[in-house]
Every structure is written in structure tokens, then in C-alpha cells.
Amino acid sequence: MSIILVSVVILFLTFVILYWLKSNETEQLPLPPGPSRWECLKLFKYLLRSEDAKMHVVMDDLYKQYGEIVTFKLPGTCMVFLNSAQTIRKLFTSVAYRDVTADRPPSFFKTNLSQKGSDIILRDYDAVQMKLRKMVHTTVKLYGEGIQVFEEMVGSEIRLLEKSMTADGDDTTVKSFDIDAALTTSLIRIIYIFLINETPEDTEKVVEAVDRFDKALIKMFQIEVNLMFTLFPWLRFIPGPIKTSYDYFISSLYAMRSIFLNPEMIKTQEHDKDMTEETVQGILGNIITAGFVTTKGTLSGFFLLMLYHPDVQKRIQDEIDDKIGDMEITIHDRQHMHYTNAAILETLRFIRHVPYGVPHCNRMDVDIDGYRIPANSTIFTNYWSMAYSEKHWENPEQFNPDRFLDEHGKILPLDHPTRQQFIPFGVGRRSCLGESFSKSRIFLYVTSLLQKFTFTKGDDPLPSMYSETWGNESTLLPGSFKCTVTKRLSP
Ligand code: HEM
């Protein structure tokens, strides 16, 4: 009896000491500042209830109140918002942190929809993720830098788009051209060519399926919607708005897969045990979703900005006339086109249409800048606030490509402090795989179209050029708009 009693006492004391040590250890550094638990709940309720609520605006308010790292506590999860490029670089690229901050947080989508994270975007950082990333990165980068056959296919797609902008007969002006719809069709055709290696027979069917799927996806990836599904996954079975949007998402996912996934694609991967059918499906979905909406957002935003800033459009056209003339434009022209490259970078900064990236998760406690980020936090990169921070940008609300040029009119080098502040594609282990692919497509579209056409505001009202008004999804788009397109005379 006495032995049992002594054992219980020893066990109890051990537990008390361990608990004390543990809590002492975790109290070493405080959590980053942030609103109280009660305020967090109120904000979360506001995000769920109000149609106009935007997560990136809430993040911006918190950044202004609490500084560069902010904690947002909700039952069962701790969210951390990183509000400066410097902190993001430190956490995602330095040897000390980069391997422990590269997972993706647990979520309903990771468990139920991405085949338990067997794709690239939602999978945790491990040897297989690294292998899949490397494989897809090499291919996407190669295409980004201009594989001849693909380049020719893209060239003919851009010519198709140009043709749609030219009125019949001798007319050189189209009064009411829906540029957003034209870009949608053209970019989806290019993704199709990239994945299937041939032009689609039924463009309308492909465009409808991808467009529908993407709209459903960016809605589902909104932080608050994602969190709702993660905390209350059973809501998808109860008739109501949550079930409706879930069912809509699933049906659009299957429609999209039926177009892009063919048995051949899976068969060719059979020799590789890491490339299961689920993984092929997952990667395919990643490229379609990550590759289309983001590039379309940039191009729609760019042409919208040209309508508001004819002076910038004129300077790009002058550069095209000067450096390329009426020759066919290739990706190799990019290196001479400093002002055009600056205008593309400034568009990405100005519209900040991927406001909070894709969340990371840290697999262990991380001490940084005098704070502790507890293990398994959901870490958000607040690109939205960074791109307009008065600390780093002069007159951030002005669209000014010159901010990316030096005194000789050359694009600032990558290690210049201004470029270091600007990381729209993320950095480190989980940075964007499509950076060079999308930059080269954007360059080709912008220069090929401005070489031949001038875009001006027509009679139709335009969306605001400020992306605050572009909705509250995880990728912001200006929506449909029309403009006047005038054919330019050869330089
Ligand atoms: C303007 C265009 C684009 C922007 C602004 C953009 C931005 C981003 C950002 C911010 C991330 C998250 C980085 C992180 O987790 O830290 C990301 C990830 C990713 N992007 Fe992009 N992206 C663009 C275009 C593309 C394109 C064209 C593709 C594919 C062809 C692509 C494929 C991916 C993939 C697969 C990931 C996940 C990487 C991983 O989890 O390891 N993106 N992108």
C-alpha cells in the first residue's frame, strides 16, 4: 500500500514539475501582440456575417494597430500574420527556420479534398513534396523561359486574341470590347495546351469548366470559409448555404477533372510510386487553379490600369516601337524592356491581388524577434499591407512604374532594397512554382497587344482601379469590363 502511495506521490510530483517546467519554458517569450480572445471572436463573427467584410482589410487594421507580427487567437487555432518582407524572409528562407515553417496548416481541404495533401500546394514539406515541386518546377520554368514549340503555340493564341480585337472590314476601332472575357478564353486555352499539348476542340466547354471551378475554389479558400469547414466539417451535410457552396464546389471539381485528366496521363506515371492517381489529379488541379486566376488577375488589372493611365500605356508603346518595332515579340525581348517590366511589377504591387498568399504552418515552437510562435500556428503572409506600407513605399496609392527604375531608366536589380521589399510570389521552400512562367506570359500578352492596339475608356463604366473594391475572395479580380480598342498604325 505504502509503495503504491509513494509511487502516486512521485508520479504526481513529477507531473507538477514537468508541467511547471513546460509552462515556464513556454512563458519564456510572449506571443506576438494582437487583439484579445474576445475581440478575435467578435472579428471572426463579423467576417462570417457581413457580406462586405474582407479578411485582408481586417489584417491591415491589425497591422496598423499591433505592428509587424500579429497573433489572432481562435478556439482550437492560433493564427499569426506576418506583415513585413524582412520577417517573412527570416522565417521562410534562413537556415534556422526554413525547414520548420514550410508545412501547410491542417484544414478541411487538406484532409478531404486534396487527397490528404497529396498535391503540391497543400502537402506538408517532406521528401516527396520536394521531389514533386522540383519536377513540376523544372517543367514550368522551362516553359516559362520559352520552349520553341510551346512558344509558337502561345504566339498563335495571342494572334487569335488580336484577331478578336479587330473589327470586320476596314474598321480599325472596336467600341465596346470585353477584354476580361477575351483574356479568360485565351489564358485557359494556354493552360490547356500546356497540360494536354494540343489546342482544345471545344473551347467553350473548357473555359466554362475552368472558370466555374476557379470561382468556386477562390471562394472556398477565403480564410473564414476555409475555417468554417475546418472547425465544423459536418455543416456540409446540413441543407443550407454551406452545403450548397460545398456541393457546387464538388460538382465543378469533377467537371474540370473530366476534361483535363486522361488515362494516358496516369499511365505514363505508373513507374513512379510517389505519382499515384491522386497525386496526378492534385498537381493538375494545382496548375489549373494557381496558374490561371492569378495570371488573369494580373492581366485584367494591367489593362484596367492602362485605361486610367494612358501616359503609362504611351511610354510602354514608345519602348516597344523603339526596341522591337513591328517584329514578332519573343520572351528574349524581356531583357531590354525596362519600363515595360517596371510597369508589370508596379501592377503586381498596386493591385496586390493575392492578398495573403497560401498559409504556412510551423511544426515546432519558433522564437523570433522577441516573440514565440507556438507550434502548429497558421501563418499568413500579409502581402496586402506590405505592398502599401508607407514605411517602404513613397505615395503607395499612386500607380508609378518609375519606382522600380534607377536613374538611368534601368530596372532595379533584385538585391535593391525596393525589390527586396516586394515578394508577391513568396520566398523560400514554398515560393511560387509558376513565377517565371507567369511573368513571361504576362510580358508576351502585354507587349504583343500594346504593339498593335491602343486601349481607351469607352462609354461603359469601369470598375475602380483600386483593388479594395474587387471583392473578398482569396484572389482578387476586377471583374468584367469593356473598353475601346483602336488598331495602331505600324511604327
Ligand atoms: C501573377 C501570378 C502569380 C502570383 C502572384 C502567384 C503567387 C503565389 C504565392 C504568393 C504562393 C504562395 C507562396 C508561399 O506559400 O509562401 C504561390 C504558390 C504556388 N504557385 Fe503561384 N502565383 C502566380 C502564378 C502561378 C502560376 C502561373 C503557376 C503554375 C503554372 C503557379 C503555381 C504555384 C504553385 C504550385 C504554388 C504552391 C507551391 C508550394 O506549395 O510548394 N503560380 N503562388
TrEMBL record:
**UniProt-listed GO biological process terms:** hormone biosynthetic process; progesterone metabolic process
UniProt feature coiled coil, ranges: none
GO MF annotations in UniProt: heme binding; iron ion binding; steroid 17-alpha-monooxygenase activity
Keyword annotations from UniProtKB, A to Z:
Heme, Iron, Metal-binding, Monooxygenase, Oxidoreductase
State the needed cofactors, names only. Answer: heme
InterPro entries with a match to the protein in the record = Cyt_P450, Cyt_P450_CS, Cyt_P450_E_grp-I, Cyt_P450_sf
Top-level lineage group: Eukaryota
List positions binding heme.
432
> Entry's Pfam families?
p450
For this chain, the family text in UniProt reads: Belongs to the cytochrome P450 family.
- What's the protein here called? Uncharacterized protein
